Amino acid sequence: MTPILGIMASSISGSKAITGAYESIASVTPSGTATVSFTSIPATYKHLQIRVSLITNTGGGSLRGNFNNDSTTANYIGHYLVGDGTTVIAGENSGVGWLAMGFVYGGMITTYPNVTIIDIHDYASTTKNKTVRVFSGADKNASGGAIDLISGLWMSTSAINRIDLVTGSGQYQTGSTVSLYGIKGA
Q1: pLDDT band at 13 (very low <50, low <70, confident <90, very high)
Q2: What is the pTM of this model?
Q3: pLDDT of 14
Q4: In angstroms, how far apart are the furthest CA atoms of the chain?
Q5: Domain range holding 125?
């Protein structure tokens, strides 16, 4: 009888998916600057997501995230795993006043941007430290590719109301887009 119940349950009509779970808070197209800032972030969502399409004039370094203007080195720690099809690098990012939010590969043109998705969990909570998950990668201008998996922790129970994203080297160039989304809770 169990298989029949499964079949019957799968034929339930109506949508069970949450529609409109992501709401656009802000989107910018920076050019000629090293920093993008989102300020006065409303505390009305469960989580945040930032989507970055980064074109930069200089490679190297990382996209760096900073919360609420906090640059206290003891407050940030992260781990990363980077692979390019040939080499795998893993490590820890600590002792700096920011979180790595993706690595920046040089020589990007509009066809080959660095693309990053950043999830910030429970950003408005005042009882939890904040965790961050990053998925990032680039085609490296058709000379191979790379992918980054990064986890981060901001050791603060303050609600996040400001996020700064700084290129580790170079500047955002024309064609870059940085968008902030709020994710509704269940």
Answers
A1: very low
A2: 0.85
A3: 47
A4: 65
A5: 20-183
The two three-digit tokens of residue 27, written as one number: 């989107």
According to the model, what pLDDT value does residue 2 have? Answer: 44
CATH number of the domain where residue 61 is located: 2.60.120
Tokens of 137: 């990668």
The chain-wide mean pLDDT, for the chain, equals 85
Q: In what order do the strands lie in the sheet with 177-183?
A: 22-28, 177-183, 47-54, 114-121, 130-138, 146-154, 76-83, 88-94
Backbone CA torsion sign across 124, 26, 99, 145: positive
The closest of 175, 179, 177 to 27, measured between CA atoms, is 179
Residue 8 lies in a domain: no
Q: Which residues contact 173 (CB under 8 A, 6 or more apart)?
A: 31, 32, 55, 56, 57, 108
Query: Average pLDDT in the 96-102 region?
Result: 92
119 closest CA partner among 61, 63, 72, 180: 180
Give the pair of three-digit tokens for residue 48: 């945040």
